[in-house]
Amino acid sequence: MSTDEEPLPPEAKRQDAAADRRAGAIARLLDATSLRLFRAAVEERSLARAAEREAIALSAASRRIAELEARLGSALLRRHDRGVTPTAAGEALMVHLGTLFGIYERLGADMDAFASGERGHVRLHVNMSAVSGFLPEALAGFLPAHPGIRLTLEERYTEDIIHAVQTGVADLGLVSGTVPTPGLHRRTWREDRLLVVLPERHPLLARAAIRMADLDGVPFVAQPGATALQRLYRQHAAAEGIALNERVTVSGFDGVRRMVQAGLGVAILPATAAEPYAGPMQIALRPLAENWSARPLVLCTRDPATLSAAARILVAHLTRPAEAKPALPNEEWKTG
Predict the structure, then answer these.
(1) Residue 318 belongs to what domain range?
(2) What CA–CA distance (Å, rounded) separates 115 from 98?
(3) Which of 293, 234, 281 is nearest to 255 (CA)?
(4) Rounded to 5 degrees, what are φ and ψ at 298?
(5) For residue 75, what is the domain's CATH number?
(6) Where residue 259 sits, what CATH number does that domain have?
(7) Greatest CA separation found in the chain?
(8) Cβ(53)–Cβ(60) under 8 Å?
(9) 140 and 279 within one domain
(10) Do β-strands 172-176 and 77-80 pair in parallel, antiparallel, or remain unpaired?
(11) What digits encode the pLDDT tens for the residues 52-102?
(12) Cα–Cα distance between 168 and 184 in angstroms, integer?
C-alpha cells in the first residue's frame, strides 16, 4: 500500500488558496505595535494607562487604535468616562492575541539564539588530511558545548572544497595551504608534516631521512590525481626530473597504508595518517627531507564578516590556543 499522500482535489486547492489570501490580507492590516497597545488598553481598562505602559503619547495611541479599527472594519473598544472596555469584536481579537504574541515571543527567542550563536547550522567541508589527523579531537568538545548548533561535516578533495566555499555550498573549508584559494579568506590552522612510509626491511630504511631523489624509480603507492597531496609531490618530482614509479593507485590513506604493508611500494603520507599505524601495521617511517614537507592546513571562507554567529563560534573554537597545538603561529584572515 502506498504511503504517499493523496493529492488534494481542485476544490480543496481553491479553498486553501482562498484561505491563504484571507490570512495574508489580515496580516497586512495588522501591526504588532497597535496590537500591543490594544491589548494593554483592555488589560489596563484605560487608553491613557495603556499609552504610558507602551511608552507612546496618548494622542498617538488614540490614533493607532482608531486606524486599527478602521482597517479591521469593526469597533474594538467602547469609550466611556471610566475608561475603555472591549466590544464583542475586541474580545474576539483578545482571544487570538495570546496565541499571536506567544508566537512573536518564541520567534524572537529563536532569532536571538541564532544571532548569538546558541543555535545555527554550520557547513564545514574538509580534506582527508584533516579528517585523519587533528580535526576529530578538535571537534570532540565543540558539539557537547554547543548543543543548539548543527554541524554538517563533509570530506572532499581540496579543489572541491574551495569551489564549495566560493559558491556558498559550504560556510568553511579546511584545505591544504599549498593550494591557492582565489577569492577566499584563509587563516593557518595546523602544520601537517609529511613522512615517507615504507615496508619493513626496505633498503631505504638505511637512511635517517629520505629525499625525493631517493624515490626515483622506486615502486610507489599513489593516490588519485585530484588530491592536493598527490599534486604536491608530483609537482616537485617533475621539477627535479624524478620519475615516480606509481605502481599502485588507491583512494584513502588506509588503502595506501595497506598497500605499503603488503610490500607493493613506498608512499608519502601526513604524519597524522602514518605515525599511529606504524607499530600495529608493521610499517616503517622516515622524515621526508624536503623544504616543502611541512604543509600548512588552512581554514577558508568567502568573507569572515558575513559568517553566521554559529560559524564564528566554530572558528573561535578551532583556533583557540588549546586547540591550535601543534600549529603555526596563529594569524588573522588573509586573502588568497
Answers:
(1) 121-336
(2) 26
(3) 281
(4) -125, 145
(5) 1.10.10.10
(6) 3.40.190.290
(7) 106
(8) no
(9) yes
(10) unpaired
(11) 999 999 999 999 999 988 888 889 999 988 889 999 999 988 888 878 877
(12) 11
